[in-house]
Fold this protein.
Amino acid sequence: MTRDRSAAAFLLLAAALPTACLTSGYRTKPRIAVVDGDPVVQMAPPGTFRSATDPRRVPAAEHSDPPKGDERLLGLEIGGVVLGYPIGLLDRAEVIDDEAGGRAWVVVRCALTQVAAVYDRSVDERTLTFENSGALWRDTLVLKDRETGTYWSSATGLGLSGPLAGRHLDAVPAAYTTATAWRRAFPDSRYPDLGLPTSVPLSMRIYGVSPWQGVSGEKTGDRRHPPKKELLSVAAGREVVVFTGSEIRRRGAARATVAGSEISIEWDPRRQTARAWTLPAETRRELAVVPMYWFALVRHFAVVRTLPNRLEVE
């Protein structure tokens, strides 16, 4: 009975999902390339799934479905503007190209691995335009730029296949927080309005509590955390340090080492989120903090560091 119920739930989930992040046929779809031993799988043709460019931005009071309460969003201060990208909206439009004040960036989301990240769109003084490629690598959405046809990992910004393979997109710091916290911190923030709901779809909520670790059939053997535990991460090359927001909130701040460099992780009470900075403090630079499921972190990075039990409080 339990097995039948699980199978029925999976069929319901697969039928309900509108995104490239969970589609049947992973093992039979075309391979674009093999990168570090894992295939880039073309689940659907490019353009099949929704992407957006230069979305209309409006205040919360004018939004067709303003984000509410504890719904998550990515908050961004960039190019002289303050913007909030609701995670539920990004579940429906997983790639959004945006720009302001001479800065151009792409916001990308893959609910399959819980990735929500922002990358600079400038590479070699050229501004790239990204779309949802319809492909997955390590169970994570793959971007494709229209200018060169290069495929890029949404989890790390690594160029996977094409003329710019091996290059990295620069990650842009963004606040992974709640709609309420962001609105309190920035009451004049604007939000992209695509005429779509901003709450997380039911299909994504079902997947979030399911035992499935993507669609490839791969399962992590690293038991330091449950496979579907949402963690925050700061990456440098092939290394990453991971933690939870509650860890940092309790301590106020912690220090960690990633790729041989010391960083400071601090709780921002105004934004209600963890932020990371390079050290020493005199020359500190903010680093991107990216949410991701544990099973995805151990697949995407060669070295995954967790914070020690005794955190160094600053």
User: Anything to note?
Assistant: Residues 2-16 form the longest helix (15 residues). The CA atoms of residues 109 and 116 lie 4 Å apart.
